[in-house]
C-alpha cells in the first residue's frame, strides 16, 4: 500500500498540471478565435507629410521631433476648413466626436495655435444641443449620425474643459451654460448621474467612471469660466454641483476608482467590509488627476495601479480590465497614461510610453488606433485623439499644463 501511494505521489501532480495546461490552451485558442488579430485599416492620410525645419514645432526632446510633427500634421489633415475635426480619415471614423475634438482644441491651445483651436470650438458651438446630451458623434457638416448609437453625457464635460483651457468661455458662453446646466440636471439624489454611454461606445446599465471623471473636470472648468466672466449665480450653482459630484465619486468609487461601483456579492455581519465585484480598472482613472484635476495621493495610487493592471504583453495599454482579453493595446489609452505621467512629473513613465507610441507608428509615420499582438499597427491611422494626447503629453513635459 505504501509503495502504491508513493507511485501516485510521483505521477499525480504531472497529470494535474497537464490537464490544467490543456484547459488553458483550449481557453486561449477560443479567445483568439473570438478575438481575431486586428490589422491596419489605413496607413495614414494620403499625401500628408510632416512639416520640417520649423523651429516652433520642436518637441520636449529631439528624439520625439518626428513623432510630434507627424501628430500635428495629422491633426491638420483631420481638421476640415469648417472646423470639423474627424476622429479618423476613413469609414466609420470619419465623424466628429465631441470628446476627440475637445482634446484636439486643447492640444492646439497648449502649443499656442489658438486660431486653429477656435475653429474646432466654433464647429462644436454650431452643433451644440440647446438641451439634453451631446450626440455621440456628428457628420463633418454638423448632421446627426443615425446609427442607433446613444447620446453620451461625457461630451458635456469634455467640451467645457476645452472651452476653459482655450480661454474661450466668453465667446462661447451659451455653450458653457447649457452644457454645465445639463450636468447639474443629470445628478441624482446620490450625487451621481445616471447611466450613459462613454468612450467605450457601448450602452451602459449603470454609471461609469468614464462619465463621472470628465463631468467633474467639466464642472470645475465651468466654475472658472463663470467666475472669470462675472456670472456669480452660475458659479455658485456649478460649484455646489461639482462638490456634490466629487464627494459622491469618492464615496462610491473610491479608493480604487474602478470603471463601475463595487457591488456586494455576499452577506456579511454588520461592520464587516463586504466582498464585492466591480468593473475593474479603467484607463479613464487618469482623468481624476493632473492635468484634469488637482493631484491627490489616493488618485495617484489608483492611476499607478490601473496602469500596472492594464499594461499588455506588447507593452501598450488596454482600455479596461474587463475589456476583451485579446492582448491588443489601444493607443489613446496608452497616450492618456503618458499624459498623466508627464503632468504628474513622472518623466520616466511618460518617456517609456511616448517611446512605445513612437516605435509603433505606421510606415507613413501616423499613430494608429491599436497595436496588435504581433506588435503591428492596427485599426485606423491616424487617430485624432491619440495625436492630440501625444502633443499634450509632450507639452506637459516642457511646461505644467493648467488644471481647472
UniProtKB/TrEMBL annotation:
Keywords: Membrane, Transmembrane, Transmembrane helix. The keyword Ribonucleoprotein does not apply. The chain crosses the membrane at residues 12-33. Gene3D superfamilies: 1.50.10.10. InterPro entries: 6-hairpin_glycosidase_sf, 6hp_glycosidase-like_sf. This is Glucoamylase. The lineage of its organism: Bacteria, Bacillati, Actinomycetota, Actinomycetes, Propionibacteriales.
